Amino acid sequence: MKSKFSHKLGGLALAGALAAFSGAASAHVWQIGWNGNADGSLTFFGVSYHPTVVPGTGTVDDFASRPAGLVINGTNVTFDVGSVVDLEDSSGVGGTSGTVSAIWNGLGLDGFVTATGTYTTSGSTYGKYASVNLNTAALSGLGIGTGTNSVTLTTFSDNVDWAGLTFASATVPINIVVPPDTTGNVPEPGTLALFGLAAIGGGLMRRKAK
Fold this sequence. Notes:
Number of domains: 1
Helix content: 25-40%
Distance between the termini: 46 Å
Number of helices: 6
Shape: globular
Oligomer: single chain
Order of helices and strands: HHEEEEEEHEHEEHEEEH
Largest sheet: 5 strands, antiparallel
Strand content: 25-35%
C-alpha cells in the first residue's frame, strides 16, 4: 500500500511526459502561494483562472485519477484530493494582500509567485484554487527543512485547468521559510510504552552482565 507521501510525489519518468503536454496545451495556473504552519508543515496553493469546480471521478479536479499539482525542487507533488475551492471569479493582480478575491486574501499567505508576462502587471481571474499540505517528512524528502530554503517551483498537469504558465521560479530558486514545530507534539502512548520496555530490557541486560 502506497503512503500518502509516495502518492503525492509522482514518478520522475511521468514528469517529463506531463511537462511536454503542459507546454503544448493552453495553460491556466497563474499564481502559486504558500503558508508555513505551526506544526512545521507547508501548504502550497495553485490558482487556476478556470472558474468552476468540476465534481466527479475522472474530472479535471479529481487528482486521484488525473494528477496535477506542483513541481517542487524538480519533483512532482500532486494536489490533495478534494482540495479544490471556488473563488469569486474576480480579476486583478492580487497576492498576499489587497487581492480582489476575499477568499484568497483570507489565506494570509506567507508568499506567492506569479506567472511571467502580463500576469505580473494586470493579473488574471481568481477562478479556483487547489492545495497540498506537506508535513516535515514530506518536506525533508524534497530537500526542505526548518528555516530558509532555496526552492524551485512550477506546476504540472495533464489538462488545461491546472497546467502551468511560465514561472521564473521554475529555474530561479526562491526563498521559502519553514517555521519550527511549535505544537509541542509528543510521542503517542504506544510509542512511549515501547521506549519504556526498551529501557527496562536494557537495565536487565546490564544487571546480568555484572
